TrEMBL record:
Domain of life the protein comes from: Bacteria
Pfam families: GGDEF, PAS_3
Domain PAS: residue ranges: 12-67
InterPro entries: Biofilm_reg_signaling, GGDEF_dom, Nucleotide_cyclase, PAS, PAS-assoc_C, PAS-like_dom_sf, PAS_fold_3, Rev_trsase/Diguanyl_cyclase
PANTHER family found in the cross-reference section: BIOFILM ARCHITECTURE MAINTENANCE PROTEIN MBAA (PTHR44757:SF2), DIGUANYLATE CYCLASE DGCP (PTHR44757)
Matching NCBIfam families: GGDEF, sensory_box
GGDEF domain sequence ranges: 167-290
Domain PAC: from-to ranges: 86-138
Name of this protein: Diguanylate cyclase
Length: 290
């Protein structure tokens, strides 16, 4: 029997049974070896398994392979530390073969001598929360108009990729010609469509490992790791050619492009950026003179 502050709120075994059977979270008991001795009926609504389909099997047999290390560390600490473990986030296997995120709080069960004889836990479905956190992270690194990476992500990637292993590394700058005029004449919705169209050109013509970002109103940058001058020129030519054939609601898409390749370790990426930007503005000036 479990007692509260007074006899009037004492809980008996039936009260506990009702609570466990109606909990929306999974409540489970594991043996010393981690085998499921008991799991509450919520496992059916949450994972599709009947309790009898899970009982008698190791809990970790339902844990995603990539999360086994997290689970084993948490479960192993129960016997060593003999204290509850909270916030264990693992993906668990649904009967239909899909995976859902669950956060478990686990407590060790001990005999009179203090030896751990098993454990008990409560697992809550955290899938929606994890998805929301992933979406927030995605939004923090992506441009909302084009879906490309934003300046914040670009700056982090520059630091990460600026290593000897990635050399030569080319930085390509691009600027949409006449974007301000299109915004002023046709409205920002038209300008957004031009941005989206050019973003699609970059996705199409750049490689999977290239980092494509919109870093300003009409400015884009592409980081091309392990890319020399000739290969960079070929990529830039493809971008220009595809752009020249793109028309958005009757408006021809036009861009100015410049690039610079880092060939030596002692060259700074800030300098490479400036030289690529200068080359882009020289091309833009030529376009205006035509």
């Amino acid at each position: 029997m479990i007692f509260g502050k007074s006899e009037a709120v004492a809980w008996d075994a039936n009260d506990c049974r009702i609570l466990i059977e109606n909990s929306m979270d999974m409540i489970y008991r594991l043996s010393e070896a981690g085998v499921i001795d008991f799991i509450s009926p919520a496992c059916t609504s949450l994972l599709g398994h009947l309790p009898e389909e899970m009982e008698g099997r190791p809990f970790e047999s339902f844990v995603h392979p990539q999360d086994l290390a997290v689970w084993r560390t948490a479960f192993g600490s129960l016997e060593v530390e003999k204290v509850p473990v909270a916030g264990v986030l693992c993906r668990l296997l649904h009967k239909d073969g899909s995976w859902s995120h669950f956060t478990s709080n686990i407590v060790p069960l001990m005999d009179k001598t203090g030896r751990v004889t098993g454990s008990a836990g409560v697992a809550r479905d955290s899938t929606e929360q994890v998805q929301k956190e992933k979406e927030l992270l995605r939004l923090s690194f992506h441009d909302p108009v084009t879906g490309l990476y934003n300046r914040r992500f670009y700056e982090e990637e520059v630091r990460r990729l600026d290593t000897f292993r990635n050399m030569p590394i080319t930085l390509l700058m691009a600027d949409i010609d006449g974007l301000k005029r299109a915004n002023d004449t046709y409205g920002h919705a038209m300008g957004d469509r031009l941005l989206e169209a050019f973003a699609e050109v970059l996705r199409q013509e750049c490689r999977e490992d290239d980092i494509i970002a919109r870093i300003g109103g009409d400015e884009f940058v592409v980081l091309l790791p392990q890319t020399g001058v000739k290969e960079a020129e070929a990529i830039a030519s493809r971008v220009v050619e595809t752009t020249a054939g793109t028309v958005v609601d009757g408006i021809p898409l036009s861009v100015s492009i410049g690039w610079k390749t880092k060939l030596h370790e002692n060259e700074s990426m800030e300098r490479i950026f400036k030289e690529a930007e200068d080359a882009m503005y020289r091309q833009k000036a030529e376009v205006r003179r035509r």
